[in-house]
Amino acid sequence: MMRNVIGKIGVVLLASLFVLTLFPGMSWAHPEKSHLVRILERGVLRVGSSGDYKPFSFIVPKTEAEKGRLAVAKTGSRLAAKKEDEVLIGFDVDAAKKLAEDLGVKVEFVPFEWRNLIAGLVADKYDIAMSGITIRLERAKSVHFSDPYILIGSSPLVRKEDAKRFRSWQDVDRPGVVVVVTLGTSNDQIVTKRFKHATIKRITAPASTVAELLAGRADATITDNIAAVMQAQDHPELYAVNPRHPFEKDYFGYPVQQGDPDWLQFVNTWIRLNKQDGFFEELEQKWIAW
């Protein structure tokens, strides 16, 4: 089945190159070469990745990755600070490697901070971002999103000792409650829109929100339900509130630069074919433990 997917993607790739060769100006009036052509010419796919968002993009010691002990992730590290004895792993890391493989090129992971995610794409620091990124209208003003590849939602993460105190997001949104979120993320936008009473504390890295919670400097954080479950597994003193029933549902997609329909179409075709082949289902089974 995998050979069939690679074969189908090869046909799409050849067709795209054929059209680009015959009609080099067909590119939404974009004067430069498509990223698809440039990726193939340089032989490298540049992928924006945060390195701090388990289970989609995170860092572990090489020895633990080789043993398959992925639950001991160093969720406090960012990709930019990765050491030689550490490796980047995760759902979207595997997806990026597969995309590069199907393109017949190498993959290069380029670190970004969440607040600079869109700016990095616009500045052409990477060809695509793959790091558990929520599709948002505000972001879509500056970049184009691929078709969705997974459904997610937002859930509170609290200390287990407060589980009875916080049974829903409404319980969290109360005077005197400190909620910590990652600046510039979709959950930052959700909290800004929905929360009217709690005190909102914004910091720059997802892993730091957990540290704030564990240290008692915050009462709760709002994160994706998948991440909440993973954090509760890593830290028994934490508790994910209703992760199977998130209070706001969203989709993850892969953002690319605007004005490049050929590259966007290829990415969408790649997602569709790999969904049909069961690749994304395999990634869910590997990385997401409900």
Can you describe this structure in just a few lines?
The protein has 290 residues and is α/β, with parallel strands linked by helices. The protein contains 12 helices and 14 strands.
**What is the H/E order?**
HHEEEHEHEHEHEEHEHEHEHEEEHH
* Low-pLDDT segments, ≥5 res: 17-31, 68-77
Distance between the termini: 27 Å
Radius of gyration, CA atoms, in whole angstroms? 20 Å
Largest sheet: 6 strands, mixed
Comma- or semicolon-separated keywords:
290 residues, alpha/beta, D-Maltodextrin-Binding Protein, domain 2, 6-stranded mixed sheet, 3-stranded parallel sheet, 40% helix
Task: Walk me through what this model shows.
- The structure is a single chain.
- With 290 residues, the chain is of the alpha/beta class.
- The protein folds into 2 domains: 2-149 and 253-287, Periplasmic binding protein-like II (D-Maltodextrin-Binding Protein, domain 2, 3-Layer(aba) Sandwich), CATH 3.40.190.10; 153-250, 3-Layer(aba) Sandwich (D-Maltodextrin-Binding Protein, domain 2).
- The chain has 12 helices and 14 strands.
- The protein has helices spanning 2-22, 35-42, 62-67, 91-103, 117-122, 137-140, 169-172, 186-194, 206-214, 225-234, 261-276, 279-287; strands spanning 44-49, 52-53, 57-61, 86-89, 106-111, 128-129, 143-145, 150-159, 178-182, 199-203, 220-224, 238-240, 248-252, 255-257.
- Strands 8, 9, 10, 11, 12 and 13 form a 6-stranded mixed β-sheet that branches. The protein has a 3-stranded parallel β-sheet with strand order 5-1-6. Strands 2-3-4 form a 3-stranded antiparallel β-sheet.
- Helix 8 links the parallel strand 9 and strand 10 (199-203).
- Helix 1 (2-22) packs antiparallel against helix 11 (261-276).
- The protein is globular, with a radius of gyration of 20 Å.
- The relative contact order is 0.18.
